[in-house]
DNA sequence: CATGAATGAGTGTTCATTCAT
DNA sequence: CATGAATGAACACTCATTCAT
């Protein structure tokens, strides 16, 4: 019977614990920030006691890093891989990448991490350093590589790589901040469709790079 | 009477207390964040005792709100209004506006308020609403007006006003966030010169809008 | 009236706080050991709240060090000074010193600190190091100086300074351990009179050093 | 039957469990003290799981008591009895006894028990009583018997038996405490050789007793 | 009004102990 | 019997807030 295949309860739970805790932590960190999230709350939301949390993650900071690895680092790595396998014009690759980034990361709950980091970096320097190393640098490199690819193929010209990379990334961050900060969210006015905004922005950039 | 013109030192000080506290609080909130700033520090920097702080502001949260309100109003009334009397090509106006914004606001301590707001908005919904009303909307309107001016004069074409306005504003916000968040500060790579970055970005946008 | 001379209540209490806390801490550390003494208990015994303790001492370890300085270091320093001013035969000085040590330190509650240190040194290396530096080394030096003084004057001969110093000190420590450890306390048998024991021991040593 | 003589491995292990746990606990208690020793560590060193420890000992405190009882009894029955059959001068017997005590007990891991007892006696009054009865009294009696033997034979004169016995024992305890307590360990100065120290001390005592 | 001594609820983390498997 | 996942009480230390002076 199928019953036979189901492992004993304890064992099954044990394997799911880290995932459950990570999910609870993601929710709460995004919702309330790092400092304001109490470890006991995380445990409670995952349905376990405070002690259990520390059985799986040695500290609140390590829990946070695990959340980042699970949700953000993964997204970057996926992007990098996808880019490496792309055949076609760089302007297409750039646009694809920007839209894929939104679909895969920006539009999800996980993008709240980015807002969190920007907000609390000064209070938690170690977390900030970790995030730079694992997320910011790889992401910037990805964008710059695409720009160089375009330059090599004669598609992109007359641009400053670092500045242009920032010009490409900044609206994406802006979208995230909008999404997660009530202050920037245009509740009254028509909230722009993010994918459309990204597409337009990509076009604007590409047009600018082509002359 | 002389009494009225030259109040005794203590009296004058007393009237300045709230302002001094607000200034000290701004510095510290910007530097360390809301949670990490201790009320005693604020009092000390303002040269008064802990108790006095609570004499003027009933709680740390209220102090925070006062800091935001005090500085936001200033920034807006000064900045946005000044900008609208320009004669000449819209592409020049746009560039001027962006650079002036940086010089007058982005590069000053006051820009820390923007970071504060964005970081803490979720914990203080009233602040978020206030900020939108007083800052976001007027600023967006200004940018959109310039874009429309350019369209009328045949300088700018083929663009979506809202999206382009966001594309213009987002790198400026990005610069602010960079300035105030360790996480985005490119310690390893060459930290880009903000004015150069803005100029390049303005050019990129203008080029994109001209075809 | 005298009333006029009495300073305001708060002020007077503030000046007495450290002393009250130090006394409470001494009691509890001696009674229960360092690890087993909770900071809240110390505060409670001194009649203040937990927070107040940390207003005067930055940590439990610093509180302990202050207790040592107040109670033990003082005793050593007094001994050193007294020794320096002594005129007379070294055998008399040695005996005086040992008896004075008992009267001034060994017989008091403060001697419990010595037992505490010996017991918990391994768990709190920093405290152990502090105690060695501030107490053990100076005390050993004092004893060795007296032995050398005796050798110079031809009173003491044929001895190994380090070993003899230890032979002199060890029974004093033994008395302390007896006093503070139920295990060594001869409840059934006649508990020997410490001063007599020290006198006899001093004689034994002096006799041994004279041939 | 063979079954009785060679029990299956598991069975044999099971019977040895308490002993293995006791040994592991001894090591760790001596090394790190009672409070600082985690029960999981004890179990791990004994090669069993945390749960198993509590199967054999209902609590950490009971484990501690068992460790003390197990080891103290051994040390006494072996040591004290062996010592009484000496022929020759009492001063030789005394010296022999002291050195033998060091070789057989003081220098071994087991001496850590003495330190344990003295350190924790106040928290475990029953243990203190037990230790006095089984160790302190017999040991004191042995020493006093030797002193009386010396007095009878005209070797030792002019001494107070109880006090002298304590003077003899205290440096031995001092050595143990030195060995097991960082606080008394003279890291800076030359750490004295224990056997030499004991020999010197014995000589000092004997010299003192002979005049 | 201003002070700063005093408070005590709150937080991350540890670890002896339990109990379902 | 043995396991080890789970528990939750405990503890040092912080800091916004109060209030006697």
Q: Can you tell me about this structure?
A:
The structure is a homotetramer of 211-residue chains. With 211 residues, the first copy, chain A, is an all-alpha fold. Chain A folds into 2 domains: 1-58, Homeodomain-like (Arc Repressor Mutant, subunit A, Orthogonal Bundle), CATH 1.10.10.60; 68-210, Orthogonal Bundle (Tetracycline Repressor, domain 2). Helix content of chain A is 74%, strand content 0%. Chain A is built from 10 helices and no strands. The longest helix of chain A has 28 residues, at 125-152. The first copy, chain A, is elongated. Chains in contact: A-B, C-D. Chain A binds a DNA duplex (21 and 21 nucleotides) through helix 2 and helix 4.
Main sheet attributes: strand count, strand direction, barrel closure of chain A: none
Gyration radius of chain A, in Å: 20 Å
Q: What is the number of independent domains of chain A? A: 2
Distance between the termini of chain A: 68 Å
Helix content of chain A: over 70%
Report the order of strands and helices of chain A: HHHHHHHHHH
How would you name the oligomeric state of the polypeptide chains in this document? homotetramer
Strand content of chain A: under 5%
| Continuous helix count of chain A | 10
Shape of chain A: elongated
What is the CATH homologous superfamily assignment of the largest domain in chain A? Tetracycline Repressor, domain 2
Q: What would you call the structural class of chain A?
A: mainly alpha
Mean pLDDT of chain A: 88
Look up the CATH topology of the largest domain in chain A: Tetracycline Repressor, domain 2
Q: How many strands appear in the DSSP assignment of chain A?
A: 0
Unreliable stretches of chain A (pLDDT < 50, length at least 5) are 1-7
């Amino acid at each position: 019977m199928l019953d036979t295949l189901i492992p004993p309860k304890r064992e099954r739970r044990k394997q799911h614990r880290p995932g459950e805790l990570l999910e609870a932590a993601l929710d709460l960190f995004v919702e309330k920030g790092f400092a304001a999230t109490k470890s006991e709350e995380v445990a409670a939301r995952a349905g376990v006691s405070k002690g259990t949390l520390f059985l799986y993650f040695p500290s609140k900071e390590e829990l946070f890093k695990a959340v980042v690895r699970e949700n953000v680092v993964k997204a970057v790595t996926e992007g990098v891989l996808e880019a490496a396998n792309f055949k076609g014009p760089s302007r297409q690759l750039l646009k694809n990448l920007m839209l894929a980034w939104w679909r895969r990361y920006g539009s999800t709950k996980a993008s709240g991490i980015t807002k969190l980091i920007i907000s609390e970096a000064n209070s938690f320097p170690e977390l900030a350093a970790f995030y730079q190393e694992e997320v910011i640098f790889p992401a910037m490199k990805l964008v710059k590589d695409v720009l160089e690819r375009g330059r090599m193929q004669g598609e992109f010209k007359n641009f400053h790589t670092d500045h242009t990379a920032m010009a490409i990334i900044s609206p994406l961050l802006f979208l995230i901040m909008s999404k997660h900060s009530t202050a920037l969210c245009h509740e009254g006015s028509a909230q722009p469709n993010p994918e459309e905004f990204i597409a337009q922005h990509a076009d604007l950039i590409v047009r600018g790079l082509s002359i």
